[in-house]
C-alpha cells in the first residue's frame, strides 16, 4: 500500500469556498474524496502525492476545521504510525489551541491505537498545519490512499 500525506490552508468568501481552496492548496481539490477509517496495511510506503486524475474517487483520512472568527488559530493534523503488521492513522483538529499541543495529542492517540493492537511502531509521521483566520479560513491535513 502507498499513501501520501498532504496539508493546505486558505481563506475564502464562505466556509465552503475556504474549504475548497484549502483542498486545492493541499493538491487534492480536483478529486472526489472518500473518507475512510484509519487502518493501513503492513509496510505501507509513504510517497509524494502523484498527479491525480481530475474527478477520480480517492480514499482518504481527512482532518479539517474552518472558522469565520477573525484572529482564530485553526489547526488540523494527521498522525501516521506504521508497524510490521499494520498501521494506524488519526485525524485531529482544534481552534485556538497551541499547535504543539495538537501534534502531541495526535501522537498520543496514534500510539494508543497501535498499543491496543499489540503493534510496535517503526515509523511515526505527523503532518500539522495552522492558520490565523483573516475572514473565513480553513485548514486541512489528509492521508491519501493511493
Q: Any overview of this molecule?
A:
- It is a single chain.
- With 146 residues, this protein is of the alpha+beta class.
- The protein has one domain: 3-Layer(bba) Sandwich (Pyruvoyl-Dependent Histidine Decarboxylase, Chain B).
- It contains 2 helices and 9 strands; from the N terminus they run βαββββββαββ.
- The protein has helices at residues 15-26, 99-116; strands spanning 2-11, 32-35, 39-41, 45-46, 57-67, 73-82, 86-95, 123-132, 137-145.
- The strands form 2 sheets. It has a 5-stranded mixed beta sheet with strand order 2-5-9-1-4. A 4-stranded antiparallel beta sheet has the order 3-7-6-8, with helices on one face.
- β6 and β7 (86-95) form a beta hairpin.
- The radius of gyration is 15 Å and the shape is flat.
- The model has no long low-confidence stretch (mean pLDDT 97).
Question: Features of this protein?
Answer:
5-stranded mixed sheet, Pyruvoyl-Dependent Histidine Decarboxylase, Chain B, 4-stranded antiparallel sheet, flat, 146 residues, alpha+beta
Itemize the secondary structure elements and their pairings.
Blueprint: E1 2-11, H1 15-26, E2 32-35, E3 39-41, E4 45-46, E5 57-67, E6 73-82, E7 86-95, H2 99-116, E8 123-132, E9 137-145
Parallel strand pairs: 1-4, 2-5
Antiparallel strand pairs: 1-9, 3-7, 5-9, 6-7, 6-8
Briefly say what this structure is.
The chain is of the alpha+beta class and 146 residues long. It has helices at 15-26, 99-116; strands spanning 2-11, 32-35, 39-41, 45-46, 57-67, 73-82, 86-95, 123-132, 137-145. Helices cover 21% and strands 47% of the residues.
Amino acid at each position: 500500500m502507498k499513501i501520501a500525506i498532504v496539508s493546505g490552508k486558505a481563506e475564502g468568501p464562505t466556509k465552503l469556498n475556504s474549504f475548497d481552496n484549502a483542498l486545492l492548496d493541499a493538491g487534492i481539490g480536483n478529486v472526489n474524496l472518500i473518507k475512510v477509517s484509519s487502518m493501513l496495511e503492513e509496510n505501507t510506503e509513504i510517497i509524494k502525492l502523484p498527479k491525480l486524475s481530475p474527478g477520480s474517487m480517492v480514499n482518504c483520512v481527512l482532518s479539517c476545521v474552518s472558522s469565520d472568527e477573525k484572529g482564530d488559530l485553526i489547526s488540523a493534523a494527521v498522525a501516521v504510525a506504521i508497524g510490521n503488521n499494520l498501521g494506524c492513522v488519526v485525524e485531529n483538529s482544534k481552534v485556538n489551541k497551541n499547535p504543539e499541543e495538537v501534534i502531541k495529542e495526535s501522537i498520543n492517540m496514534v500510539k494508543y491505537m497501535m498499543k491496543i493492537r499489540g503493534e510496535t511502531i517503526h515509523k511515526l509521521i505527523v503532518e500539522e498545519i495552522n492558520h490565523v483566520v483573516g475572514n473565513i479560513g480553513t485548514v486541512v491535513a489528509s492521508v491519501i490512499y493511493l
